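for the writeup, i need someone to sanity check this before i put it in the appendix. the sequnce is what the collaborator sent (i think, or maybe the updated version? ugh). structure was predicted straight from it, no edits. if anything looks off just tell me and ill rerun, i have time this weekend
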Amino acid sequence: MLMSSGDKAAKLQYGPSTFRIIRSGQHVFCAVSGEVIPLEELRYWSAERQEAYATAELSTKRFLGEV
């Protein structure tokens, strides 16, 4: 994803089934891969760890302690 100077990372508070936007932005970063995740594509996160994940596979690997 190409990012323009207007793009900035959002700060979110992750809950069990939804997230709350603390600071507005267009994306967050995957806690495992560092990949940019546009907010409209964000599907996986950990409320306990307050982390976002790019894919279900990365989320599962983090949960199992593989990464």
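Residues 31 and 46 are 10 Å apart (CA to CA). The chain has a mean pLDDT of 93.
thx in advance!!
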